[in-house]
Amino acid sequence: MPMNDWQLRQAARIVHHGGLIAYPTEAVYGLGCDPLDGAAVQRLLALKQRPMDKGLILIAADLDQLRPFLLPLSADDEATVLATWPGPVTWLIPARPETPRWLRGAHDTLAVRVTDHPLAAALCRRLGHPLVSTSANRSGQPPARSPLAVRRAFGKSIDLVLSAPLGTQRRPTAIRDLRSGRSIRSA
Hints:
By secondary structure, the chain is of the alpha/beta class. Helices cover 30% and strands 20% of the residues. It has helices at residues 5-16, 38-48, 63-66, 75-82, 101-104, 118-127, 147-154; strands spanning 21-24, 29-32, 57-60, 89-94, 109-114, 131-135, 160-161, 174-177, 183-185. Helix 1 (5-16) crosses helix 6 (118-127).
């Protein structure tokens, strides 16, 4: 992985201080911030022109980083989810009632993924918590697939753009509903 430790520390420092970053994921560049920083999330939503009611995705280095946001999983549900992680499957899982609305949107679930992108996973490990992960684009526009495309779309509104290769997926991750087993978005 071309990302060095200094760049990861810089990205983590920016996120911890309320900043917005762009980083490569499995298929596209993502925009991220601290999921518990309401002001940072509001800034991100405004940049994307995305309504809060839609909700956001959290990525993490492991399931333990996500547990504080989710209702406890049964052994069967946990096995179902872990069979796809780390990997390019995002699950809609019932959220704890105290999970901020700015993350859940108008839903009682939260979209979560344990990423298999090495840089995104390393960043979550460095942060010590999950990261908001939404495609780097304004609503209705195609997602950015390079640092240059991120800068063209957002200019200096993003505090740091990490430059590294995307993962091997051609399309954004699949989204599945854990309760119904339904596929919401296919990869």
